[in-house]
Amino acid sequence: MVDNTENMVLRTIYLPKDLDQTLKAAAVRGARSKGELIRDLILTGLNEKRKDPQSYFVEWKSEKKSVRPSSPKAKVVEKAKAKPVRKKAVAAA
């Protein structure tokens, strides 16, 4: 089967060899690719997690925009940008 990858994002993950072999066997039995199987398993897992009110996936499809937490490095960069730059006086020869 050929996937339409136009609206997809590539993610690279490391799997233990035994898990990869299990995925390969399941994909062959289901006559589908490992990629299709992995996407299906991720969606199933996310849907199960959203059923749990304690899960951090509860607001996964929320209409709220997510806000990235600011890092300490970002604050340092902001402070550095705020300081005026002083020009050194050039000595006339």
Provide structural commentary.
The chain is mostly helical and 93 residues long. It has three helices and no strands. Helix 1 packs across helix 2 (34-51). It is elongated, with a radius of gyration of 25 Å. It starts with 16 loop residues before the first helix and ends in an 11-residue tail after the last helix. The model has no long low-confidence stretch (mean pLDDT 77).
Order of helices and strands: HHH
* Average predicted local confidence, pLDDT: 77
What summary fits the major beta sheet? none
Task: Based on Cα principal axes, name the global outline.
Answer: elongated
Characteristics of this structure?
93 residues
Q: Layout of SSEs?
A:
Blueprint: H1 17-29, H2 34-51, H3 72-82
In a nutshell, what does this entry contain?
The chain has 93 residues and is mainly α. Helix content is 45%, strand content 0%.
